[in-house]
Amino acid sequence: MIADQWPLFGLVLHTPRLELRVPGLDRLAELAELAAAGVHDPAVQPFVVEWTDAPPERVAASVLKWQWRSWAGWLPENWSLNFVAIADGRVVGTQGLDAERFATLREVGTGSWLGRAEQGRGLGTEMRAAVLELAFAGLGAEFATSEAFEDNHASYAVSRKLGYADDGIARHVVRDAAVTGRRLRLDRESWEKARTVPVRIDGLAPCLPMFGL
User: Burial level of 178, CB count in 10 A (0-12/13-18/19+)?
Assistant: First the structure.
């Protein structure tokens, strides 16, 4: 089985409504199709990298390449773990967790998106809560960080609900205009206080060496 060679394929996170797992090719194709159908209002661009401004076929291809690149470039000291989120048997979005020098710094970053039809149902909170459980309870993280543009109220609301605090700003150029990102940081104590979404983690033990643990 592929999980014998790449244990991450056996890692699964469960929340009340979602299952998060590293996708096989069929699930990855579903995610690419979801992205091609649109993940945000075309009038705005919520990402620093403007990958969703491309034609649908290029958007879909970029999803595939992003996942394959993360697999090929995986190192215990520099990794990017990207799950598909599955609800009612279908892919509804993706949730990422990444880190550099995690064994020493004990800090992770997160990023995610949902298909437009799946937004506004609280799934973003469950997705983030799942990977935070993996980070803090499963891997022993001390901090988690996130960032969203000032007008991305949905992302900021998820962060606040899960206990993040403001951590400064970052400046970016998006669509040839200057935009401000709001950085957020979550420490272990705050995570424990805001921890309300039940999460079950399966298949973690064989993966630990891949995280440098």
Answer: exposed
Sign of CA dihedral 48, 98, 102, 128: positive
183: burial class by Cβ within 10 Å (0-12, 13-18, 19+)? middle
- Is residue 113 within 8 Å of 143, Cβ to Cβ? no
pLDDT tens column, 36-66:
999 888 888 778 888 788 999 999 999 999 9
Q: Copy the structure tokens of residue 34.
A: 């979801």
Region 9-33: mean pLDDT is 97
Choosing among 3.40.50.300, 3.30.70.1560, 3.40.630.30, 3.20.20.70, the CATH entry for 2-211 is 3.40.630.30
Short-list 89, 162, 83, CA closest to 126: 162
Helix (H) or strand (E) holding 190: helix 188-194
